[in-house]
Amino acid sequence: MANVDHAKIREAVTMILEAIGEDPSREGLIDTPKRVANMYGEVFSGIDQDPREYFKTVFNEEHDELVIVKDIHFQSMCEHHLLPFYGKAHVAYIPRDGAIAGLSKLARAVESVSRRPQLQERITATVADALVDMLNPVGVYVVVEAEHMCMTMRGIRKPGSKTVTSVARGIFEDDAAKRAEIISLVKMS
User: Fold this and answer.
1) Does the annotation place 63 within a ligand binding site?
2) Active-site hit among 61, 79, 121, 173
3) Which segments cross the bilayer (predicted)?
4) Rounded to an integer, what distance in angstroms lies between the CA atom of residue 68 and that of residue 140?
5) pLDDT tens per residue, range 109-164
6) Does residue 27 carry a catalytic annotation?
7) Does residue 89 sit in the same domain as residue 139?
8) Is 120 a catalytic residue?
9) For position 18, which CATH number holds?
10) Are 69 and 103 in contact (CB under 8 A)?
11) pLDDT(2) > 80
12) Binding site annotation covers 81?
């Protein structure tokens, strides 16, 4: 859990409830400020985490072909509206000199980056850059697809619309065939 100031959050939530014309002392709302403070501690637990930490332990395996972990489910909070967005990340890399990461570490990196006020574009780039920094792979390609509640429940109100972002590093920056291979693998069931 993030090191959040629970008292400040409770006070702020109470003020928001009052500002929208609600009675914070109403039975259903009495514990809402406390619940929101606890939720924010959990939802923003990645604020102090560095995703590169997950790639400090490297295994050596003579593997110089594509490694992909797909359908990594995540939830995050849009930093513009503090509304959730959620979806799946697909992380691929080609090891250099046999340096591979534990597969769960790819998912942990996505999780830590998503658990803070965030932008989808930043999640995509941060995960890719952490892999580049720590593994020095031949290439990294990260694709993130998500539904944003700031587009679903307010503003344009288009439920089901998805935003897709991708970041290519190394060999994937210039090799369209390699990128196409990853996209075809992501689309497979």
Assistant:
1) no
2) 79
3) none
4) 10
5) 999 999 999 999 999 999 999 999 999 999 999 999 999 999 999 999 999 999 99
6) no
7) yes
8) yes
9) 1.10.286.10
10) yes
11) no
12) yes
